[in-house]
Amino acid sequence: MEMQHVHVLNHPLLQHKLSILRDKNTGVKEFREIVGEIASLMCYEATRDLTTEEVEIETPICKAKVQVLSGKKIAIVPILRAGLGMVDGVTALIPSAKVGHIGLYRDPETHEPVKYYCKMPSDIAERDVLIVDPMLATGGSAVAAISFMKEYGCKNIRMMNIIAAPEGIEAVQKAHPDVELYVAAVDQCLNENAYIVPGLGDAGDRIFGTK
Ligand code: PRP
Ligand code: URA
């Protein structure tokens, strides 16, 4: 499998937290908290190449030239519902980011994504976009969400998924070879219901307690 634009973030802290998400005995409260913590840790890596510029400030001791983010505008775009669980973890590190929402659900029969909601910041085309969704399974939702952002005129798009299936990575890379993917784990495969194996089950249900 082509992995040129895939960053597998196998940091020990991420792997430990992910093991708690995978455990079927982990309850809603802990699951939700850990999804947020993982999103923060992943965001730290996914923003490693943001550009900075030099400014001069005064410390209590003397004048100093320091680096600050160079005013690049960022939008976080969660894919509803489960992507919502990652938003706070990202805004904790990028408090000035705006948030756009895309509502997609997978048709239970065909597994094809169905769009039901969309609301973007008015200047979305000028922003660097970080799409977040805990699960990349067939890739249908991710491919549709990225196409959608391109229709809005967005050029710099990256995506963060906690767990990805090889099938999903391949689908995204085929449809959108320009998009960088950041994942904490690449799992074995999909099962007959297009769930990731071993995965963590239904991310939306586990975050919101709907099952
Ligand atoms: C889940 C998940 C992704 C999608 C991944 O959402 O959060 O959006 O499935 O599957 P795919 O790669 O095969 O498209 P789901 O459709 O279960 O909706 P929900 O977040 O509202 O529960
Ligand atoms: N969506 C989920 O929430 N989990 C999976 O394993 C696949 C799609």
Write the SSE topology.
Elements: E1 6-8, H1 12-22, H2 28-46, E2 52-58, E3 63-69, E4 74-80, H3 84-91, E5 98-99, E6 101-106, E7 113-119, E8 128-132, E9 135-136, H4 140-151, E10 157-164, H5 166-175, E11 180-186, E12 189-190, E13 196-197, H6 203-208
Parallel strand pairs: 1-11, 4-5, 4-6, 4-8, 8-10, 9-10, 10-11
Antiparallel strand pairs: 2-3, 6-7, 12-13
Helix pairs in contact: 1-2, 2-3
The structure holds 1-O-pyrophosphono-5-O-phosphono-alpha-D-ribofuranose and uracil (URA).
Detailed description of the structure:
By secondary structure, the chain is an alpha/beta fold. The protein contains 6 helices and 13 strands. The chain has helices at 12-22, 28-46, 84-91, 140-151, 166-175, 203-208, and strands spanning 6-8, 52-58, 63-69, 74-80, 98-99, 101-106, 113-119, 128-132, 135-136, 157-164, 180-186, 189-190, 196-197. The strands form 3 sheets. Strands 1, 4, 5, 6, 7, 8, 9, 10 and 11 form a 9-stranded mixed sheet that branches. Strands 2-3 form a two-stranded antiparallel ribbon. A two-stranded antiparallel sheet has the order 12-13. Helix 1 (12-22) runs antiparallel to helix 2 (28-46) and helix 2 (28-46) crosses helix 3. Bound molecules: 1-O-pyrophosphono-5-O-phosphono-alpha-D-ribofuranose and uracil (URA).
